[in-house]
Specification:
Order of helices and strands: HHHEHEEHEEE
Radius of gyration: 21 Å
Low-confidence stretches: none
Number of helices: 5
Number of strands: 6
Largest sheet: 4 strands, antiparallel
Structural class: alpha+beta
Length: 163
């Protein structure tokens, strides 16, 4: 990967709203060169998606997010890939990672309620033949997401106990 590509990726990771013109100005290149490089990164699958990070604590949302640890038996000739693809195919699954350590897959899911996430785990994930066990951890509060500190959350200011 070229240095220019790395510099553009770094800028877009910090703020995906930057225009080709803004990137060109920051890197002292032409807007046409910035746009062509971004298009190339997208076409090659290096840039997969642009997204916004939401601070859901600042508005009413009845959704639930959970991290599910999944221990699986790898399949001959496929390792963890086949089961990972099957789990990833569910709409509830937002992120899926192969992990080292006590469990094999970390699955981040979104659901409408605790019950819907629990049902998803018991009726979908745990029913795969290669799944040995699961452990579900509900996310209670987010302090930092993708490098962004979640500030301005209601009740985030602690009161001083000193007179």
């Amino acid at each position: 990967m070229q240095n220019l590509e790395k510099e553009i990726l770094s800028l877009l990771e910090d703020d995906s709203r930057l225009s080709a013109k803004q990137i060109a100005c920051a890197l002292q290149i032409t807007e046409k060169q910035a746009a062509a490089t971004i298009r190339s990164l997208e076409e090659r699958g290096i840039i997969v998606k642009y997204t916004a990070i939401l601070n859901t604590d600042t508005f009413e949302e009845d959704a639930v997010e959970a991290l599910i640890e999944v221990k699986v038996t790898p399949q001959r000739g496929h390792g963890f890939d086949m089961i990972a693809q099957e789990i990833a195919s569910h709409d509830e699954v937002q992120n899926l990672y192969l992990m080292s350590g006590a469990y094999d897959l970390a699955v981040i899911v979104h659901g409408k309620s605790l019950r819907s996430v629990s049902r998803f785990v018991s009726e979908k994930i745990s029913t795969y033949d290669s799944v040995i066990s699961t452990a579900t951890h509900f996310i209670l509060k987010k302090y930092k997401v993708e490098g962004a500190v979640m500030t301005g959350t209601p009740g985030s200011e602690r009161l001083s106990i000193q007179p």
